[in-house]
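Listing S7. Sequence submitted for prediction.
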Amino acid sequence: MARKQSDYLAALLSDEAPQSTEAPPAPPERGSDRLRGTTLLGRESALARVASGEVRQVTQLLLDPARVRIWPGNARSYAHLTEASCRELVDSIIAEGGQKVPAVVRRVEGDAAHDYEVIAGTRRHWSISWLRAHSYPDMMFVAQVATLDDEAAFRLADLENRARADVSDLERARNYAAALKTHYGNHASRMAERLKLSKGWLSKMLRVAALPDPIVAAFASPGDVQLKGGYALAQALDDRADAAVIGGEAKVLVREQQHRRDKGLPPIPPADVLRRLIDAPKRGQEKKDRFVWTTPHGRVAVTAQTINRQGVTLRLHAGSGLGHDDMVEMVRKALIELDGHGRGLQR
């Protein structure tokens, strides 16, 4: 049964909103007074700020979590939540006799199985659902109902996730990439302004979001892909030939990770995975002059200097003895051969 309360979100609207120009600071250590006080209040204040002017109704409900779905615009992967990852929250809910911090939900229409969807509070939803299935059938999901459009819901969910260490950089990056198209018309500058993020930081996150799944699979968990290393890996994939070598190394790593899981061994550490992927093109070969074309007399005529997504740079060597027509034919031969190796001009 719903009961009206003083505006849980609106009561915090007077807090001033600090603007973030870089990645959010790391959360305080668990158990600290700062975590119990500043982090919680700061997060709830942030949720209120983003909803300011767009929340038209605030109602607190006690809900059956089975009737509440998860909004797909949230960065957190519900499928990856486990008893272990939510254990601290579960224990807290048990100790306090129920969920004390409400989630934020909005009503849904046209879904016979659900009445609401979670905008902020995915872990709380999972934990209450788990408790109801494990000896606490009367536990209720406590939620605030807010009327939000999708873009406001995205900003609210993003602010909540910034305070969470268990939302990985890759999850957030892919969430940003989806939102860029859905909510901001592919205008990164507008998105950065709305989210109070620096354009440079957002650009790096979007590069990480584009990492191919077969590359990400080399890591023991997608959560191991962090911004700094992920961005370096994305840059390494710019060269198509290097990308092919990195992809081959990723397949090797996937098999090694599976072998370790089967044997009950610890996974390959993320730093080692990253190093092996980035260094793969360098092992066993020199990049310079990898492709060389010579005349029938053995003189060097053409070499490939650089090959990347921006184009191919060929060096035409003096002293090869070739005339203009023969040199043009040699360049044509070089381009055809590069295409055969998957390193030709991208069209």
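Caption to Listing S7: primary sequence and predicted structure tokens for the chain studied. The mean pLDDT is 80. The first strand starts at residue 59 and ends at 63.
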